[in-house]
Amino acid sequence: MTELSSAASQSFDTKVLKVDPASIAFNEDGTKLTITDPVTQANLEEAAQILTTTNNVVGFPTETVYGLGGSSLNSESVKSIYRAKNRPSDNPLISHVSSIDQLKRKLLSKSQTIPDIYLPLITKFWPGPLTILLPALPDSPISPNVTANQPTFAVRMPSHPIARALIAISDTPLAAPSANASTRPSPTTAQHVYHDLQSRIPLILDGGSCDVGLESTVVDGLCSPPMLLRPGGISLEDIRKAGGAAWEGIVVSKKTAGKLEPVRTPGMKYRHYSPTAKVVLFLNCGDGVDKVHDYIEKLGDQKLRIALLRSKYFKKGIDKQIVVEEELGVTGDEIQRNLFALMRKVDEMGVDYILIEGVDENNEGLAIMNRLSKAASETIVG
C-alpha cells in the first residue's frame, strides 16, 4: 500500500485550474467516462492524483455549490477537510459517488443493499442534489471522521460533470462539504473558494458558476415516517411526488440540533451561511418601505453602510442610507441560485448590514428560508 504524504499545517500556493464541463460525458449507468478536451483531462488527473497519493483536499464544482473533497475512506484526508474549513469535527460530511456501482464497491458493506424506500427517489433524482442516509455497519469502509461517529452516513451522486469525473477518475468516494471557511456563505464560484481557502488547499478546479446555488436536500428513509433533515435543491413537494406512498407522510426536521444532540446531517448545528456584515431578515413586510425605513432609523447611525437584497415585493430606493441594492430574482430557482453569491458580493463591498427580503416557504422557498434564518442575526416580521 502506498504511504500517503501529509500536510498537517502546510501552507499551499493554491492553483486554480480551468476545466470544461461540456467536454465530459458518462454512459447511462455512470461507469464509462469520456473526456474530449485534453486540458480538462490533464487537470482532472492532477486533482485525482492529489486525492489518491496525499492526504490533501481539492476544491471542485458541483451543481449545488463548490465542494471541498477528500477521500471518504481516509481519516487523515477527512481531517484535512475539517482543518482547511476550520469546521467542528462533530459535524458529519456527505460522501459523493460517481455511480451506483461505485457506491456498492466502495462504501457499502459486502452484505449491504440500498433500502427499497430510496429506489424511487434515486431513480428520479440521481445524479442530482439529493442526499440519502444509509446505515454505517460495523464493517463499513467509510471513515468514522466522515460520520462523526454516527450510525449512519450520508451519500449522493452529483450531476455536475466535473464532480462526477473527478470522483470516477480517482475511483474514490469524496467527502465534500461546501468549499468555504466554516460559517461563511457557501461558494458558487471558484473565486469564492479561493477567497476563503487560498493557501489552505493545493488546488481548485474552476468549472464556472454553480447552477442550483443551494446545497443538496438530505432525507432519512431509515425511520418511520421518513424525515427531511435539510431542505435543498430538491423540494419537499418533489420528494412527496416522486417517492410515492412511502414518502407522503415525510416529516420536516427542526432546523437546528440542540447543544448536546448528535448532528445527523450538515447544517443542523452552529452558525451557518453568514457574511461578516450583520444579516437582517424581513418577513411579510409588503413592499418593505415602512419596515426597512423604520429599522434603519432605529439604528441611528448615518455612517453605517447598508445593502439590500430584494426579491418579489420590495420597492427600489427604499432608503437613502442603502448604498447598494441587488435583485435576488422572483422565482425560487433564481433566488436560490443568486442568494449566496450576492451575499458574498455585497459583503466584500464592506457594508455593515445586509437587509434581505424573505420569501414564502413553498417549493424552493423552504430551502431558501432555511439558509436565511441561519444567516440572520435578527428577523423583522411585518
TrEMBL record:
An example molecular function term from Gene Ontology annotations: ATP binding
Annotated binding of ATP, by residue: 87, 91, 152, 178, 186, 230, 273
GO biological process: regulation of translational fidelity; tRNA threonylcarbamoyladenosine modification
Residues annotated for L-threonine binding in this entry: 64, 96, 156, 176, 216
Keyword DNA repair: no
Stored Gene3D superfamilies: DHBP synthase, Threonylcarbamoyl-AMP synthase, C-terminal domain
Protein name in UniProt: Threonylcarbamoyl-AMP synthase
NCBIfam families (alphabetical): L-threonylcarbamoyladenylate synthase
Species assigned in the record: [Candida] arabinofermentans NRRL YB-2248
Example of a GO cellular component annotation carried by this entry: cytoplasm
Subcellular location: Cytoplasm
